[in-house]
Amino acid sequence: MSRTHNFNAGPAALPLPVLERAQREMIDFEGTGMSLLEHSHRGATYEAVHNDAIARLRRVMEVPDDYEVLFLQGGASLQFAMIAMNFLPQDGSADYIVTGAWSKKALAEAKRYGALAGGKARAAADMHVDGVCSRVPQQDELDLDPGAAYVHVTSNNTIFGTQFHEFPDTGKVPMVVDMSSDILWRPIDVRQFGMIYAGAQKNVGPSGLAIVVLQRDLLARARKDAPSILQYAVHAEQNSLYNTPNSFAIYMVRNVLEHLEDVGGLAAVEKLNRAKATLLYEEFDGDFYRCPVEESSRSVMNVVFRLPTEELEKRFVTESQKAGLVGLKGHRSVGGMRASIYNAVPMASVEALVAFMQSFRKSA
Amino acid sequence: MSRTHNFNAGPAALPLPVLERAQREMIDFEGTGMSLLEHSHRGATYEAVHNDAIARLRRVMEVPDDYEVLFLQGGASLQFAMIAMNFLPQDGSADYIVTGAWSKKALAEAKRYGALAGGKARAAADMHVDGVCSRVPQQDELDLDPGAAYVHVTSNNTIFGTQFHEFPDTGKVPMVVDMSSDILWRPIDVRQFGMIYAGAQKNVGPSGLAIVVLQRDLLARARKDAPSILQYAVHAEQNSLYNTPNSFAIYMVRNVLEHLEDVGGLAAVEKLNRAKATLLYEEFDGDFYRCPVEESSRSVMNVVFRLPTEELEKRFVTESQKAGLVGLKGHRSVGGMRASIYNAVPMASVEALVAFMQSFRKSA
Prior knowledge:
Two copies of one chain form a homodimer. Chain A is built from ten helices and 13 strands. By secondary structure, the first copy, chain A, is of the alpha/beta class. In chain A, helix 4 links the parallel strand 3 and strand 4. The longest helix of chain A is centred in the first third of the chain and has 18 residues. The radius of gyration of chain A is 21 Å and the shape is globular.
């Protein structure tokens, strides 16, 4: 069987050994005569997988002891609401650094919740110019409120192909960061953040799961007036087993983390990711293939580019698909091309894309 | 490979052909060279699965055209909150028929939300006597408010092993029913209900998914002040693709529904379920094996029973496990035994259980 070169923005490529393992274990998990899907979330078999996933995430990300690791449902979109429900104080405010569609949505949800339950959410920056964000802001462009309860940042913008390579300095205000599209792409210092969250379906696993890494000091400040299921404290107290978790997704995340450790951990992954991105960005000549993102903000995960005409872009999409390269069409809101080259996309796929780009340019 | 006899309360047994199909298709879905887990939720391949799942649920349950079918994340527990966020009017109230732990939780979440955002949730009945609910209420035991926005009912109580065999008459007030543990066990008239919801992990698929069947008239009355991700209208407008869905769980639900149609639909399933339950209930002699549930309220899905002493119950759990029968320990809050015999539990498993019960009684 030949694997397609998968450049989807999410759900996205998964490591082949992880899929092979899921296939092998699908019907009879560890000799129990049952699928993991059929195991009780209160049983020893599942709990071992659950706790192993948490332990591996702690180890791989070097999560300090005073941070909780939570596995929640609803993806990053539910986090947009939960962040406000937990951390937007009734008489206080929060800052949002808007660098694309997702941070805009996160701000909108916080504003909605503030209107209902008190609290004000404001943009500390908005990088949209004519509907496009071609870079992330510099420190001196941020209008940060030192009294804010938190500053919300989106570390990587899947649609515009931008990424924070250095995070803003928010002083004593905790940073809450949406890392949905670049969690685990390299080692980071978790202590920079009050909370890290990510939908799993780009760099860590299948869809239907959000990973939350949350400092206990910040958690202690959470509001207690939301429904129980939407309170981080409730999930933290129950080790993410307050209600039935998405057990299959957590199992897959555990296996992705195991694979990640097997291939050398985040330092090795960063090296490979940088090499993949460099190979691709070097193919842009500024003429036929043009990158609309300012150089200092270019994403290592989502590489966006344009061709001279929309007609050529359409042809590029069609012909690349025929050549076994999928997911290269840019987001419908911006057009153009996008190659998502998350952790699980092998160098061979990037090389195949570059070869296709070269032959397409010649033939155009 | 021999399959374990799985009596788990949920996550629970799945049909073997459905697991075999998932195994077969895990790495290369329909010849695309990718796993379904790696397909974009905006792509044609996934969308066909998504829409097929909705269409099959409509067909199998005979869902009328003026009802939405939604696939949401967060399980039934998030529905407890969403029901209040959408349908508890700021100046109105809702009735809850409390028949066990889950309806109690649903009421508690609605009360919490009412305290925050307006609206009153009240118990129209509470069947707890000394912490136990040994039956569901009769119509004349209900203190229903004709001005309520909705009446919430739990159709089957997994922990206490009770079930509504006829639903209450709520007059013109829409009934919102949690069918997590008995959805699809038999044909029902969907028109009796304003909303049906269910966590998928008992009768329909893996964990991490809630199924919602919602009348458009009721939807039109929903509050609009909750975060977008928690509004049913937002998900209905986007065909449950407002955010990335739990695509694997929806794929599995599609396959369970296909299997269900293959074996003759709900009429055939009901016949088998009744035969399984009858075989088991007939084994209760009122002496060694005693059912604490009143006869008219006994569940066809979760059969609870007690033995003469707690010591014998402990031995029963241990020895049944050794005999390849898993999940027979009752919920920790009530003790005793529980055999969950959902749709996917074959008659052979119930026969094996009955044979074990007979030999255990002799040896005790």
